Amino acid sequence: MKKRTGTPWKPAGEYSKELGGLTVNLLVRDMPKAIAFAREVLQASIVYEDPDFAALEAQGSKWCLHSDHTYNDHPLSGSLAETEVRGVGAELRVMGLDPDAAEGRARAAGYTVLAGSLDKAHGMREAYILDADGYLWVPSVTPR
Questions:
Q1: How far does the chain reach from its first CA to its final CA, in angstroms?
Q2: pTM of the shown model
Q3: I need a labelling partner for 86 at 20 to 30 A (CA). Which of 29, 33, 76, 108 fits?
Q4: Which of 24-28, 76-80, 129-133 shows the lowest mean pLDDT across its residues?
């Protein structure tokens, strides 16, 4: 059941034509919390937001947030209530986002930092941060 009142910023079909490559839709329990994480920790631009949906951009990537209630008729709807942590096994990497700075912002805002910023053997510097829904975000850069 949609909670948005009024007209969305653009029809869904029009927005979907702007997307390409790999796109990510994340289901979230609390839209304002999810947007706050994206804005504060990931420094994402919020292109559009309402109680049901948000379109975000950061570091050249676009992704979408959908409130759980918008997936009532979706095949995943039965699984949502049962899970505490979402996306287990998936890493959402934000390439080019300073992991040290993102870690600092996450800690200051009270988010869980699973692993602080480290230079890894594969040549990246990265941090592992959980958002309020339990999605694992990995800001990553190649050290110079």
A1: 49
A2: 0.82
A3: 108
A4: 76-80
> Two tokens at 137?
């975000």
Phi, psi of 33 (to 5 degrees): -65, -45
- Which of 54, 45, 42 is closest to 15 using CA atoms? 54
For residue 56, what pLDDT is reported?
95
Q: What are 92's two structure tokens?
A: 């959402």
Question: What 3-state DSSP class applies to 107?
Answer: helix
Q: d(Cα 144, Cα 128) in Å, to the nearest integer?
A: 20
In this structure, what are the phi and psi dihedrals at residue 133, rounded to the nearest 5 degrees? -95, -5
Euclidean distance between CA atoms 21 and 23, whole angstroms:
6
| DSSP, res 71 | G
Residue 57 forms beta bridges with which residues? Answer: 45, 62
Residue 133: strand, helix, or coil: coil
